[in-house]
Amino acid sequence: MYEVRSAGAKGLGVFATSKILRGTRIFSERPTLTITAKQDIDSGDIYTVFRSLSAVDQASILQLSAHVTSPFLRWTHVLWYTTKELFTSFSIPRVASIRQHKSVLSIFRTNSFAIGGKSTIQQAIFARIARLNHSCVPNCQGNFDESRLCFNIHSTRDIEPQEELNISYLPEHGATHASRQANLTPAYGFECECPACDLSSTRGKDGEARRKQMQTDLAAFVERVGKGTETSPDMELGTIQKYIQLFEDEGIAGRELSTICQNM
Ligand SMILES: C[S@@+](CC[C@H](N)C(=O)[O-])C[C@H]1O[C@@H](n2cnc3c(N)ncnc32)[C@H](O)[C@@H]1O
């Protein structure tokens, strides 16, 4: 159904090898590395968990791409962990493992999914799903299935053979271009060039205008609710219908479909 191959400047990516119909479950993957709710992603727990993995799992994680953010912070974590280990195990850490620790932290930031909610898992890496690149108008959507401890990826529209499979790395799908970019560049190190981000095209311009209008409508809605003037269910329904219309016009309606499908 899919293959992992070069996606040009994006690095590797996932591409359809045959037509994939809307609502298809494409991935259902157990985590390779898991940080539980009780563990601390800001301490040495990530590297401790990494070292407890099998050699195969460690290798699959080390092959993932990494956007290096906050190098000073990373080194501080690594040096703190190394010093603690020196005093608790009285073993001299190898330079290679210090370097590896720093890489693992960067890989974790670039590839992990926040699970949270009621799950015992706080954050996790799914080594195959981690190859999916971002689009602000994605054709796939991910959901964590708590009962099976699997992350599922469903197609949210029909996908043609050779088309790249994308998810959105952002939690909010109605955001404007500037706000999306302000989140993507520092965290992942790229400028999105998806159809919604091409503001020189009619499609990009129209989408941006729709999103801005929606932000204005939502802000007005929140203000009316705050003042207690949003009293009519019809007015409320009208705002929600406009939001659904935006998703349909943008071609991103379907997140709700994949959520319903997640346990199927
Ligand atoms: C989770 S990884 C995705 C898979 C990655 N391309 C690889 O080779 O393993 C996230 C990284 O992929 C790249 N990436 C993802 N989406 C992108 C996009 N729309 N445009 C450019 N680069 C992208 C960025 O380098 C980002 O830090």
Automatic annotation (TrEMBL):
Gene3D superfamilies: SET domain (2.170.270.10). It holds the Pfam family SET. InterPro entries: SET_dom, SET_dom_sf, SET_domain_protein. Residues 1-170 form the SET domain. It comes from the Eukaryota. This is SET domain-containing protein. It comes from Tothia fuscella. The lineage of its organism: Eukaryota, Fungi, Dikarya, Ascomycota, Pezizomycotina.
